[in-house]
Amino acid sequence: MKVLVTVKRVVDYNVKVRAKADGSDVDLNNVKMSINPFCEIAVEEAVRLKEAGIASEVVVVSVGAKPCQEQIRTALALGADRGIHVETEGTVEPLVVAKLLKGVVDKEEPRLIILGKQSIDGDNNQTGQMLGALANMPQGTFASEVAIDGDKVNVTREVDAGMQTISLNLPAIVTSDLRLNEPRYASLPNIMKAKKKPMDIFSPADLGVEVTSHITQLSVAPPPERQPGIIVESVEQLVDKLKNEAKVIS
Amino acid sequence: MSTLVIAEHDNSNLKPATLSTVAAAQALGAEIDILVAGSNCSAVAEQASAVVGVSKVLLADNAAYEHQLAENVSLLIAQLAADYDNVLSPDTSNGKNTMPRVAALLDVAQISDIIAVDSADTFKRPIYAGNVIATVQSSDAKKVITVRSTGFDGVAAEGGSASVETVDAVHDAGLSSFVSEEVAVSDRPELTAASVVISGGRGMQNGENFKLLEGIADKLGAAIGASRAAVDAGFVPNDMQVGQTGKIVAPDLYIAVGISGAIQHLAGMKDSKVIVAINKDEDAPIFQVADYGLVADLFNALPELEAAL
């Protein structure tokens, strides 16, 4: 069974991103870029399916400008077999990413597609579900467990009330949540080997997709600042402040 | 102009997130209908009809919608959306699961997680774990939006008198089925609706020690939450996680115990009205957002706090 897994190049999760002073956009000069953490979990899951003998091939795809080939190489070093780069310019909205991925799905015909549930830059949490609708495939979003069962896959999902397990007909889409697995680190030999793994490059036109824009970012701003707080000396003082100053307990 | 709000419910009760979403819909200035899609959920439709500001309740009651499977519900919403300019859903796990499918079926963008309505096509939403608030404008004629409940004060649950109309359309995509669920049962208020939340982090050391929070929660009528570190470590289940990828809360009082204050956790609670941090590490970042910080060993401070309340 072929597994397609997606990766996105985003600001590293340790970086505290700030709005530019003129409010035009976020300041991304000289910040460290990485694979989106949820995508890393998706790659790990795909590689584990291969190690378990369930997946025959793991294909990694990324949509973005040329530098995202770094993240494809990272995924190849983690164990994916070959890469596909869909080269785009500027910001590409989730709907367009989903259409581009649909183009890749049509070419590759994977049985399972694993994506991160959201990227930590836009925090949209849309692409996997949109791909599901466009490809008319079922989806197991926010997955904490994935079990292939013949021509179906059982996905356990992290939902507001607890956990939900659903059964999906293959081919299907899974989006990873934090506790699906703990991704491995790429070893140096595997990083070297990854440089020789094949990577195809497509343009949106190759996939028959027109890149459109539906949303304009007008401005960005920092969130409202909180007033500085105080350090209390004792539990007694804390309770007094909560009762008589903040008036949040009685 | 007209807006369809998707009700969040469990087939018996309408959830408060729906009320916040109706408030966001009111800011759009259009007539508001509510869709209740579920199974044996007429009680929810009745509750929805009492919500202030709602013109009509659409009730789609069918086994295909019982577990909110996105494959089925998205087809229903996309069909009904033909009659509306806006479709709004709370940003609950159901809303996040279903709405992007609806948007793709309608070939429009989705605007996720709005916290403010500037005008009928311009919205504010947090990006980068809430470190930045973006103002975005949609050029789509039909707008698909999810609403962050903490951004809007919910409308009154009682006082309206909307009519209830049955929707007969049955969409069963036949692609997915429900297997099982593990639902946490608690007598405490829901995390996202509680006026007081007390959360534990890695500093709690194990799940057993979360009992130290329970006595305090009982006295304050609080919900109990956790940081990602505490959930990852297996101390407590995932439905308790507060943060960028867990639940977003904004109670009147948030008490963070043994939580260092990673960006990802702050994203889920920093809009709380009053924040208390109890941590023995005085350099913990959580103190930078706390209104009241107590540098103390939680194993001494918690029993003292319970006794003092």
Question: What's the gist of this structure?
Answer:
Helix content of chain A is 27%, strand content 30%.
Q: Notable features of this structure?
A:
A: 250 residues, alpha/beta, two-stranded antiparallel ribbon, 27% helix, B: 309 residues, 5-stranded parallel β-sheet, 9 helices, 16 strands, globular
Q: What is the general shape of chain A? A: globular
In DSSP terms (H or I, runs of 4 or more residues), the helix count of chain A works out at 6
Secondary structure: helix percent of chain A: 25-40%
* Topology order of chain B in helix (H) and strand (E) letters: EHEHEHEHEEEEEEEEHEHEHEHEH
Main pleated-sheet profile of chain B: 7 strands, parallel
Q: Please tell me the overall pLDDT of chain A.
A: 96
Largest sheet of chain A: 9 strands, mixed
Oligomer: heterodimer
| Helical content band of chain B | 25-40%
Q: What's the total number of strands of chain A?
A: 13
Distance between the termini of chain B: 51 Å
Name the beta content range of chain B: 25-35%
* Annotation, overall tally of beta strands of chain B: 16
Which outline of chain B best applies?
A: globular
Give the largest chain-chain interface (CB within 8 Å): A-B, 80 and 90 residues
Topology, please?
The complex is a heterodimer of chains A (250) and B (309).
Chain A: E1 2-6, E2 9-11, E3 33-35, H1 37-51, E4 57-64, H2 69-78, E5 82-87, H3 94-108, E6 112-116, H4 127-135, E7 139-149, E8 152-159, E9 162-169, E10 172-176, H5 188-194, E11 199-202, E12 215-221, E13 230-232, H6 235-245
Parallel strand pairs in A: 1-4, 1-6, 4-5, 5-11, 6-10, 7-10
Antiparallel strand pairs in A: 2-3, 7-8, 8-9
Chain B: E1 2-6, H1 16-28, E2 31-38, H2 42-49, E3 56-61, H3 70-80, E4 86-90, H4 93-106, E5 110-114, E6 116-119, E7 122-127, E8 132-138, E9 143-147, E10 163-166, E11 176-183, E12 196-200, H5 211-220, E13 223-226, H6 228-232, E14 253-257, H7 263-269, E15 274-279, H8 286-289, E16 292-295, H9 298-308
Helix pairs in contact in B: 3-4, 5-9
